[in-house]
Amino acid sequence: MKKTVLSIVLASTLLLTACSTSNAKKESETTTTAAETTTTTEATTTMEETTTAPAEDVIIPLFKSSLTVEDIKKIKPEDLSNFKKFTTEYFPVSASSGKYYKFDDHESFTICSSNNKDNKIDITLFFFECSGDVANTAKFSGGDGTLKSQIPFIPLFYNQTKGCLVGYRDAMINAHKFTFVEKYIDQMVDADPSEYGL
User: Which ranges of 44-198 would DSSP assign to H, the alpha helix?
Assistant: First the structure.
């Protein structure tokens, strides 16, 4: 009988030991599994090349702010050069002295040579009527203050980046033969109207 009780106690002890070993093993496995499934995220740095797009020209419209480029596109150069329409309908100008008009919002413009941007002068444009058409003259900074004659020209834009006025040149006043040009100190260069939205 003693042997039987001893056997039962021994069997119970072994059983309890086996259970606790099994639980410890399960806990160990769970810990190991959890440790194995933990992932390390490394920070990755990507270097992106940045390219600078060329800056667009700064183009300032000279016609009335109530008009758009699309409006100007529809107007014939002959109408733009008509002095009465020029001074009342299309451009913000007012009389400055006697027969001369000048832009209300633009006192002067800095224009350059066509091939040398460092060679630049400030000019103030004045407009007057000549046989019903617009004619213009300019006062140059640093000059003697007298007005200098200009080729008949209707400025639509000031291209601040290039340092030029942009508009229609009238090669034959009264007969009208208009070309679209960029006007620099030294010359007028044919320009593509589509670059200015026309």
Answer: 69-74, 77-80, 83-85
